[in-house]
Amino acid sequence: MAVPQLDERIIRDLSRVYGSLTERIIKRLYTPPRRLYVRVNTLRATRNEILELFKREGIVAYPDEYVEDAVYFEVKGPFNVECPASGRIIVDSRTAVSLMLGADLYRPGVLQSDYFRKGDLLLAITREGALAACVKTAVSYSDMLNMTRGLVGINVSSPYKAPKITETYVYARGLIYSQSLPSIITSHILNPRAGELIVDMNAAPGGKTSHIVQLSRGRARVLAIDRSISKILELRSTLSRLQLDVNVMAIPWDSRYLHLDLNLHGKVSKVLIDPPCSNLGVRPLVESKKWSVVVNLSEYQKQFLKAAKELLKPGGLLVYSTCTITFKENEENIVYAIEELGFSSSELEVNVPYAERVCYKDMVAYRYSPLLNDMPGYFIAILVK
Ligand code: SAH
User: Fold this and answer.
1) pLDDT digits (tens, 9 = 90+) for 197-234
2) Residue 113 and residue 259 in one domain
3) 0.70 cut: is pTM over it?
4) Residue 67: which residues within 8 A CB-CB, separation 6 or more?
5) Which of 131, 164, 208, 242 is the most exposed, fewest CB within 10 Å of its CB?
6) Which range of residues forms the domain containing residue 203?
7) How many domains does the chain have?
């Protein structure tokens, strides 16, 4: 089976940050964190109620020690994947990650497949040929071709196992949202308050937008932007599943030009930039990464920083977060925001749970590392206009 690769220049970039630990960090990227997190929708249930509801469904959930609305499940494994398969089914990267943790296969994640009959065993692999899981098909090949949604295969053997959260009553009722712990912490750092005008520049599928509504108890005015119309529809359905569609305007737009297009210049209290990134911190790593992609993304990310500068009031707060660990997309962009755009770096007076505080030039930021505390790779910086 193929193994996803990082190109040499990426490894060089990572060694700027991690030095002699680089090899160990990279090795960890191929494994999932031991804890799988969800956020409790605290406007609808308390954390203790959620723990109790999971228990009734036979699922053991634990409260996080530091973050009051975070709950986690234990991930078990690694296991050998046993699969006397009759063919292969190719899935997208996001689906491969959930299959590796034991989730079932649904139609939207399927890219291509060998012919199969209902009940056949198939090896689910990524486009590059990396193994995700063994699935037993629940429909026939021709049924699958006519479907746009629904179950295609039951996961019968996967390298890791975690509870199937999306199939629970708690999930269906909108009482939780699946989110990594650093993502949950990002919205806490943004600290949304009643009356503030907050722009979420890369909002879909809505994890942080919904959290912002939750934390401000629906009293902040939130403008949620995403370039993709289909993703804005997904965001709206997330907000309504969670019953958190309060004071949120969700618009399909290119947020790089927001300050030019809407009359928002200098009016915004807080901005969140959670831009597209190389996703290197999303564990397990299932896709090879190229340096040229990292370089292009870094340039793209800078454009959101530029627009945010124009949108914010003097003294306004910017939180920049990525689920990647390259220097190019993180420290380098924040130094650009400080040196070229005139932002100043800010930090919290309290410790940021599980994070490493990193300093570079005039910048202070927080990094989550796969080695320290077994977190996904993640970066958060706070800037003030
Ligand atoms: N903050 C989200 C995740 C964001 S992922 C959450 O917590 O759920 C990055 C998003 O940026 C993607 O949905 C992508 O469609 C969006 N994006 C990419 N380019 C954009 C642009 N120019 N303007 C607005 N959104 C953009």
Assistant:
1) 999 999 999 999 999 999 999 999 999 999 999 999 99
2) no
3) yes
4) 181, 184, 185, 188, 353
5) 164
6) 179-384
7) 2
